[in-house]
Amino acid sequence: MEAVCEQDHGGEEEEEAMLWSIQEALERQTLQIGASACGATAVVDVLKALGVEVTPEEADRSVQTRLRRNESPLPDYLLSRSEAGATHAQLIQGAEEASKGKVIGRFFHLHPHRLVRLVSWLARWIRKVSETELHQRLCSESVLLIRREDVLQRLTPECCLSSLSDVRWKALDVEGQVKQMCREEEQEEDGAKLTHITIPAAYSSGVTLFALRQSALGQELLSAPELPLL
Q: Which of 100, 86, 112, 114 is nearest to 50 (CA)?
């Protein structure tokens, strides 16, 4: 842990790293392949960057993207919104399955808050590409170009909290909040009323990195320590 802290708070670094040029990214990027399928879309580009070609349909099938239940009653619809898409576990499993075991993934938690210079940390992993003999490729979900402004816009430790795993409890809780809001709307008395519904998310805040399984970089990724707590 001390090594990580020291590394992340060392001297100034050029905080930009890339696997594809901007032009290559424009030409090779995969457009959204379906509703709530941003995770599966990212997996397509991850595998492409690692030299493994899969169809969008195969990636989406492997990731098992969860869809919104648009025709459901309101409580169930809201619950489906909290689960729509894919968790990091689904992305890792999906990338491994779609690549037939050639690609592995590793999730690094960012909540609770971590002691890390995020841009530098991500850039260092990407720069390791040039240090490998076979030029194995590594990428973070769909992040093929790392710049400070991109990370500040997209990745903040506060973006979401770790989820509650009890789906039944989540369904009951959302339904209870909806009923409470309806009751309060029917009441004529003045006073504070429920104006927002809290929906427990199925996601955890963090970064998922991928690499080829049979590579020194892949083994380093799997053995890397968690980011130290702030």
A: 100
Q: For residue 199, which of 22, 25, 74, 112 has the smallest C-alpha distance?
A: 74
Q: Quick check: helix, strand or coil at residue 185?
A: helix
pTM of the model as a whole: 0.71
Segment 149-183, tens digit of pLDDT:
555 443 333 222 223 334 444 555 767 778 888 88
186, exposed or middle or buried, with CB in 10 Å at 0-12, 13-18, 19+?
Answer: exposed
Rounded-to-integer distance, Cα 42 and Cα 92, Å: 11
100: left (phi over 0), alpha (psi -120 to 50) or beta: left
Q: Cβ(208)–Cβ(89) under 8 Å?
A: no
Residue pair 115/229 in contact (Cβ under 8 Å)? The answer is yes
Does the pLDDT at position 10 exceed 90? Answer: no
Residue 180 · residue 194 · CB < 8 Å: yes
Q: Which two tokens stand for residue 130?
A: 């040039």
CA pair distance 60, 43, nearest whole angstrom: 9
For 114, phi then psi, to 5°, come to: -115, 155
Distance CA 189, CA 141 (A): 50
Which two three-digit tokens encode residue 205? 């805040």
Residue 192 confidence (pLDDT) above 80 = no
